[in-house]
Amino acid sequence: MSIELRQLRYFIAVAEELHFGRAALRLHMTQPPLSQTIQALEAHLGTLLFARTKRSVALTPAGLALLPEARRLLSQAEALPDLVCRAASGTSGRLSLAFVSSADYNVLPPLLREFRERYPQVQIDLREATSDVQLADLAQGRIDAGLLIPPLPDKAKSELDYLTVLSEPLILAVPAGILAIPRGKNVSLNKVADMPLIIFPRRIAPAFHDAILTCFRTAGVTPTIGQEAIQMQTIIGLVSAGMGIALVPQSVSNLKRSGVQYITLADQATLVETGIAWRRDNASPVLRVFLELLRKKSPC
Questions:
Q1: CB 107 within 8 A of CB 166
Q2: CATH number of the domain at 168-272, out of 3.30.70.2190, 3.30.470.20, 3.40.50.620, 3.40.190.10?
Q3: How far apart are CA 285 and CA 15, in angstroms?
Q4: pLDDT(84) > 90
Q5: pTM of the model as a whole
Q6: Torsion angle, alpha carbons of 196, 197, 203, 204, to 10
Q7: In this predicted model, what pLDDT tens digit does every residue of 27-75 receive, in sequence order?
């Protein structure tokens, strides 16, 4: 036989009143069934919880040890309905979210700040990953959602949903001092045609890679690819080291790195998109409220 919450509730009342009659009144019951319940609890535990005389009731050492644990268990049990309600509504729980490095300079920080303010009891597990890794993790159910660079592969479109979060132009990142361009002025790519290009590998982010090359084609320039890197921080670090130039999303200019100058393109810049993807069959309430917040901010 297991201990019932009712038995613990009766035990706590007697322990706090140290009087069976007053405890019975507090519990809105008569004294005999209260005494019988305490006796049954003591028999189940194999020890006396109260030392009884005709004039007094006192807790035994066993009763003193049980009292704080009984209060804790009863408090946890009383909190269960609220806990279940919050989990069902998405106001508590866990969200596993992956993101491409560029999202760390635009949508991610303000989004996380607002979400945490609204849902402080949600645990967010973050991991930085390239779009191809995120798609594999989504397919295997290892993450709830991913902030990535589209498009989604055709084979993934039947399982994943997608929402555009941000669309922004590419800008030029060059080693500081290499171009005599006044602050606030723009530049054409033909001014840097002879400088090596640092770029994302196409196998990692084909749409992003192609968008960069489209900018050069529009300007009538054929770039020479000098380095490839899969993290935005690495690309900017290589620019800072004088290894070449890069085209990066406009928001990456928030990454302040000594030795790097960000310049707006005079040529018509291709827009690059950041979006969020998630499994269509993911019924997580936390994911639902996270997406509701994103939809309010989405440009589409």
A1: yes
A2: 3.40.190.10
A3: 41
A4: no
A5: 0.69
A6: 130
A7: 999 999 999 999 999 999 999 999 998 889 999 999 999 999 999 998 8
Domain ranges of the chain: 5-89, 92-165+274-297, 168-272
Whether omega before 81 lies within 30 degrees of 0, making that bond cis, reads no
31 CB burial (10 A radius; 0-12, 13-18, 19+): middle
Residue 115's contacts (CB-CB under 8 Å, 6 or more residues apart) are: 122, 124, 290, 293
Domains 92-165+274-297 and 168-272 share a fold: yes
Q: Helices 108-118 and 285-297, interaxial angle, to 10°?
A: 130
pLDDT value, residue 77? 83
Neighbours of 166 (CB within 10 A): 20
Strand pairing of 160-175 and 145-148? unpaired
CATH code that applies to domain 5-89: 1.10.10.10
Give the architecture (CATH level 2) of 92-165+274-297. 3-Layer(aba) Sandwich (3.40)
CA 281 vs CA 87, 124, 138, 276: distances in Å: 18, 20, 11, 15
Alpha-carbon distances, residue 48 vs 6, 16, 22, 65, 120 (angstroms): 18, 16, 20, 12, 44
